[in-house]
Amino acid sequence: MTSLDFISILPPLLCGNTSFGGQVVMRSLVGGRDYHDEFQLNRAPALHGQLSQSSTVALVVALTPSPVPLATPALPHSRSLPVTQEAPPPTRYPTVSPASEELVVSDYRYQFFGTSDSTTIMTSHEMMARAQATFPPKLSLALNSPHDLRPFFEAFPKAQLLWILLCEHEFVNFRPLQEPLPQDKDLPAAAVLNRWSRMFTACLLHYDLDIPSAVRFVGGIHTGVHQNWSTLEPLLYRASVDEKVIVELQRTFLLGAPKVCNAESTDENFHDYLGYGDHSTVLQDIIKTKSTVEKDFMRSYTLVANPLLSFFLRHCHFTPIGMVDLNKPYKSPSLIFDSTFHVKYTSMAINDWTTKKTEPPLTFAETFDRFLVSIYNGRISSPDQEIYLGDDDVSGAFRHVKWHPQMVGMHCYRIFGHVFFSTGLTFGDNTCPPNWDTVACARKQLAQYFWNQPDTITAVSGLIPTEIKTTPLPSPSEIRDFTPAEPNSRHRGVLNADGSCKSPLYDHHMDDVLHMEIGKNLMQAVCASIRALYSILGFPHPANGIRDCVSWNKFEETFSHQRKVLGWLVDSRRLTFSLPDYKRDILIDFITSAVTRRQLPICEIAELLGHICTATKACRWMRCSYFNLEHYLRVILKAHYYAMNNSKSPGATTARQSQKERLETQIPSKFCHRLESLVSKHIAQALWGSTKKYNLGTETLRELHVIRSSLQTEQWEIYIPQYIQRDPHFFSDGDASQNAGGAVSQSLGYWFRVMWSPGIRGGATHINC
C-alpha cells in the first residue's frame, strides 16, 4: 500500500456523519450529484463506478422502498478480491509513476477527487489541490509530503492504527466468509470466531469500512438468501393467508427490518456509547456470557471483526448489552440489547430512532386465554377422549428475520476483544416483536392450510429426529372423572357441521406454538406446524449452513394431559390451570424471608407484590390479600415522594413548576419532548433506587401469613370454565354510593353490603359531579 492510497481513505474518517436506513439518498461531496439506490437485503455490492459504495458518500435519509424481485448477481470484478498465497497478489491500488505526473485512477475510492465516471485521469497536483481544499488545515499541510506518512500520524494519531490494520489485512483471503461456518465439534468456537474476525476485518477494509457493502458480500444466512420468496409467495396465496400478512412478510424477506427508519447520529453520541461499554450483568457469569456470544456467532446471527475498527467505522452505533436469566430454572441465559439506555439525557438510542407505531401490529398478547378456550372447546367435542397438550419452539426466533444491511451498523456491540455486528433481529429493539409476529402469523395460517393436506406427515416425517411420545390412554374410571364442558353461544366445540374436525388454532406466544389435540390428530397437527415453519424459514441444510429452525427439545417430553404452558401447569382432564410447584416454592421462600426480616427496601416490596399478583391469577380469593398489600405499597410510595419533594410545604407546587420551566430552557429544543420522561425517570430512580428499609406493619404481616399459609396447604388452581368468558348461569345486581356498596343475587340467594373506609369516603367523587 502506498502513502497516496492511505491518504485517499482518510476523508470519510473525518466527516463525522452517521445515518441509517433502507432507501438511501447518496450525495457526492464534490460533484453535487444525487444517486438513489433502493437496496435489497442480499444485493451484491457494486464496485465499479458507483458512488453508492464510495468512502466519500454521506447517507442522508432512509425510508422503506417498494419491494422488488430478489436478485443476487455475481460480484463485479472491477476490483480484485484478495487471493491465496499460491498466486501473486494483483495490483489493487494505482501508483504514481516516477517518470510521469499523470495518475490514472480506476479504483472507485478516488472518485472523491474526480467525477463519478468509472475512470478518471488527473495529475497528482490536481489531486493534491482537491485534497487540500477538502481536508482540515492540519492534514492539508501534511499533503505537501504525501510519500511520508509521519505528518499524518502526528496530525491524526489514530491514522497510524488504521495504517497497521490495513497492512496486516491487505492480503487476507476473505472469500471463505461466503461459505458456511465449520460446525466441527473438535474445532473450538473461539478458534472459528478469531479466524472469521480476521477475514471480516479484511472485508470491511476492502470496502472502505462500508458495513452494508461488507454484509452484502458475505450474504448467505446473514441476508436470508435461503428464504425463497419466489416459492413461498404462491404457497401463501394458495393457503389463503391474509393479504396484509403476505405484504408484510414480503417486505421482511426482500428488504428486511424495520419497516421505517429515518435517523442520524453524531460523533459525540457514538463516542458516548463506545466509552460506556456494556452493562455489569455480562460479568456476573463470564463463562455463560461467553458461551451465549459464541453461540450467536456460530449460528450466523452475528458477524465479528477487530475491535480497533470501532474508531473508524462509519454509520455505526454501539449499544450496551446485558445478560438475563443467568440463574433461572427452565430458562437459558440470553443476551439482550439495551436499546433504550441513555448514557446522558441528550443521548440517542436505537429505540429513539425507531418506533413500533410504524410496524405491524402484535397479536400474541392473549394467546394463553385463547389456548384455554380451545381446550374447553376440545372437551365439548371430545368428552371422553384424552386431549394431549404440547408446544413447539423456534430455535433462534427473532434472529431469523434480518436487518436491512443499512441497519446492521446500528446494531453493534463490543465484548471479549471483538466487535460484533448483529445481522438478525435483536432482543431489546421496539421493532423486533412486531416484525417477528408477522412470521408467526404467516406460520399460523399456513399450518392451518397444511392441516387439511394429506401429504403433510410424509413431507416432514423424515426430518423429525425424535419420536413423539404420548402417555397411555386413560382408563374408564379416569374418564368418568373428566371435568365436563358445556356448549353455549360462545363455545360450540371443534367440529364442523359435517362432523369433520376444524383445523387447530396454532396460537403462538412469540416463538412458542401451543398444541391441543386428541390422539388420532396429534401427529397431523404437529407436522403441519413444523412444515409451515420450514416453508417460511427454510428447510434444514447443514451443507449450506442452514440450521434446523425447530427446537426439538420440546419434543423430548412426553405429550400428556398435563403440560407447563407459559409458566402455568395446565390439565386437560380436570380443565384447570395451576401454579407450578417450583413457582410455589419460590413465592413461599420470598414471603418467609419478608416476614422474618420485617423490613424491606421498596424495590423488594414491589417485587414481592409482582409475584403475588401473577400467582393469584389462579387463586382469586387471595386477590383480596393482594389488594391490601398493594394499598400498603401505595401508602409507602406517597410518603416517600412527599418526603423527597416536601410537596406539602407552602409554594411547593409553584416551585416544582418553576423548576420544570428552568429545565425547559436548559434542555436543547430537540430534546424537549423528553422532558416528561426524564422527570419520570428521575422520580423512578429516586424511589426504586432507595436503600431505605420500611417496616412491614401488623396488617401487612397478617396478609403475608394468610397468603403463605394458603400456598402451603392449598392447591392454587382455577377451573378453565370459571376463567374464560361464557354465558352466565346466574345474575346479580349491585350499586354503590359515596358511603357504601352492595349487591344481591336472587338466583344464588345472597346479598352483601360494604361500608367504605374514611380514606375512600374522603376521596370519593359523586357520579354527577
UniProtKB/TrEMBL annotation:
Lineage: Eukaryota, Sar, Stramenopiles, Ochrophyta, Bacillariophyta
Name assigned to this protein: Uncharacterized protein
Residue span of region Disordered: 74-98
Native source organism of the sequence: Cylindrotheca closterium
